[in-house]
Amino acid sequence: MTPRLLHLDASARPGSYSRQMSQAFVDSFTEMRPDTAILRCDLNASPPPFVDEGFLQHAFLPRDQQDSPALAASNGYTRDFLDADVVVVGMPMYNWGVPAIVKAWIDQIVRAGLTFSMSAEGIEGLAQPDKQVFSLVSRNGGFLPGEPYAPVNFQDAHFAGIMGFMGIRQTRLEALQDTFDPGTVDQNLARALANVRKLAQEAATRLG
I need a labelling partner for 163 at 20 to 30 A (CA). Which of 123, 126, 146, 171 fits? Predict the structure, then answer.
């Protein structure tokens, strides 16, 4: 089986730390699985649309009534997400949360009848539970559990919670912190890249 890897980036900076991390993941993964089909999605270069009236008018209709241009972008993003065996998202932290373009992408793929269902029994995620999702984050320091700014880290739990809502069992995180400290950033980046490469190798091995 040819592995399918969805590679997303969200940083507004070319060559940013999060972009270096996501590319290191892809490079290490494809070294082990050169047959991988990679779908590249630069959210900053082509931002997803925001949810609008047309989206809301059609997204909750029965599936056979959802053939509308208002859902075209959402259908594409959702299909790419569901088809991928591995999803890698490189993103900075902006104002304690995910970048707006990542939130816009999330809003396009959280779709009733596609990535979750609602019934009298409750809500069920419809994504493949063993899909491997990786959040590769760059930010300033102090945001990990037990650290001073952990209470205002609205990025990690938000992203992992949305993935869990859609049925993903686990979202793996690698966070490069202290990016504003010129005295430690190079050492921290080297460590983060090494961790990312290890995650990629483990992900490739799990696919068999």
Answer: 146
pLDDT digits (tens, 9 = 90+) for 80-112: 999 999 999 999 999 999 999 999 999 999 999
Structural domains in the chain, CATH included, are: 4-207 (3.40.50.360)
| In contact, 196 and 21? CB cutoff 8 Å | yes
Q: Is the dihedral of CA 192, 194, 199, 200 positive or negative?
A: positive
**CA 154 – CA 175 distance, rounded (Å):** 14
* Cβ–Cβ < 8 Å for 124, 117: yes
| Ordered alpha helix ranges (H), 5-97 | 17-32, 53-58, 72-83
* DSSP character at residue 94: B
What is the pTM for the complete model shown?
0.95
Phi, psi of 156, rounded to the nearest 5 degrees: -65, -50
3-state secondary structure of 20: helix
> Nearest to residue 170, comparing CAs of 152, 191, 156?
156
Q: How many residues does the chain have?
A: 208
